[in-house]
Amino acid sequence: MSFDLVLFGGTGDLAWRKLMPALFQAWRHGKLPAGGRILAVGRNALDAAGYRDWLQQRFNDLSGPTRPSAEAFSDFAAQLHYLQLDLTQPAHYRRLQRWLKQPKAEEGRAAAADTVVLYLATSPHLFPQICEQLGAVGLNGPEVRVVLEKPLGHDLESARAINRAVGAVFSESQALRIDHYLGKSAVQNLTALRFGNALFEPLWRRESIASIEITLAESLGVGTRGDFYDRTGALRDMVQNHALQLLTMIAMEPPARHEADAIRNEKLKVLQALKPFDAHSARRDVVRGQYRAGVCQGRAVPGYTEEGSVPAHSRCETFVALRTEVRNWRWAGVPFYLRTGKRLAAGSAYIVVNFRAVPHPIFPGPHPANKLVIKLQPEDGLELHLLAAKGASGLETLAPVSLDLDFDKAFLEDRVGAYERLLLEAIHGRLNLFVRSDEQEEAWRWVEPVLQAWREDDAAGLGPRPYAAGSWGPAGASALVARDGFSWAEEQ
Ligand SMILES: NC(=O)c1ccc[n+]([C@@H]2O[C@H](COP(=O)([O-])OP(=O)(O)OC[C@H]3O[C@@H](n4cnc5c(N)ncnc54)[C@H](OP(=O)(O)O)[C@@H]3O)[C@@H](O)[C@H]2O)c1
């Protein structure tokens, strides 16, 4: 299979920090199909050699194991090309069309590719225009797929507008919305655990599960991206997309087939079953916070409004914790807690499935109930926390042990990173791990009452609650779970 992968935004931060390293890893693992060309697009006047030099310089900033040797980079770079285009100029799209349709031998292939993946890694305000112009030059045939990076809109209306613009040119099956959490190995393993084994599914319900927690914690602040972040906030940046996508993977019914629409139909049903917020519950069940100066991982750090390019009186939330429920037979009454924030005590992301306590304890206790921990960051992994007999006398005491359910370790293969997996899925046209437009719009619909309540609170002078950098967020977040008799799991 021959392919062309075009990176709009090929000189951007996302391209050099995530996408190109992921493509390099895919190539190194021998997973990138032979006969492929990778085309970076940007406005700078570069040729292929200039772009390769630029990228090699950037790669020097990557951390040790992901940094290629000069020799490996040069082999990989043979597939890299560059085209100078201004995506706001309709006339420039003809150049792209010519490059794709009439390859030159020195570019590595004599015929047009079987598959063309157009990855939009630019600001989303360009997406409608890019799609329209791609359609105008006929770059929307059945061999073409378009990959859309987040953020896809800032509310339901703007998300719909982007989807309409994309949908006017590309069919739903050609439009691949990225949520990189879905590409993580632990999420793949969760699906395998649930639907590839008979053991867990009978327990995966309200009768056996007491609560579910999703924590996506960052120790970093907004850094130099304050301007972008202040227009976005944690609810839009993390909850509407990543946290809700993870929730759907946990809560969905078993799909009838391991096939994109069967999976996405089940995920959509979860989103539709989420307990809706109203003006009252948006204030009772959602906590928003903003970090103040503090000590994070041993270092004194400034507060959010002291970061560069953040307005001094910003009311943007850098932390959200919320409680919701999935209103169906499987999950009725089981609280789902989501928590995300910047400048928290640790940079770690995990899901904890808390099982119920044994109905009749016979060992001297108390003991923690079983839990399944799905680790997403910094390392992927799956652990089942159990209790085992401890000591020579056998049944006298129970002690916690954890069972490593990380299936990847059983296979002596290189671990596949999230972007690497998603890029390969896009090239192969497998849609299972991409978000369908109706899922994305349903997620926006669900967060809208919260955004509305915050707008009203802002107007009334009620901003986010402060928390010290390096803490686990405002005290209200602990109170939210304590109300139900729970506490957040310690860092995993
Ligand atoms: N950075 C991340 O880690 C990250 C993570 C998730 C999602 N995202 C999203 O991904 C998108 C890109 O982010 P980024 O951080 O890579 O942004 P960035 O560093 O500002 O890069 C923007 C890219 O778009 C190109 N571009 C802008 N206007 C253009 C035009 N008129 N014609 C052609 N190219 C144009 C720029 O190329 P030239 O300036 O060279 O022309 C550059 O390559 C954003 O929507 C962002 O929210 C980023």
Automatic annotation (TrEMBL):
Binding site for substrate: 180, 184, 218, 237, 342
Associated pathway: Carbohydrate degradation; pentose phosphate pathway; D-ribulose 5-phosphate from D-glucose 6-phosphate (oxidative stage): step 1/3
Active-site feature positions: 242 (proton acceptor)
Single biological process term from Gene Ontology: glucose metabolic process
Catalytic activity, reaction form: D-glucose 6-phosphate + NADP(+) = 6-phospho-D-glucono-1,5-lactone + NADPH + H(+)
Gene Ontology molecular functions: glucose-6-phosphate dehydrogenase activity; NADP binding
Lineage top rank: taxon: Bacteria
Residues binding NADP(+): 43, 86-87, 150
Domain (Glucose-6-phosphate dehydrogenase C-terminal) ranges: 192-488
Record field: transmembrane: none
Listed PANTHER family: GLUCOSE-6-PHOSPHATE 1-DEHYDROGENASE, GLUCOSE-6-PHOSPHATE 1-DEHYDROGENASE G6PD
Role according to the record: Catalyzes the oxidation of glucose 6-phosphate to 6-phosphogluconolactone.
Protein name: Glucose-6-phosphate 1-dehydrogenase
Organism of provenance: Azohydromonas caseinilytica
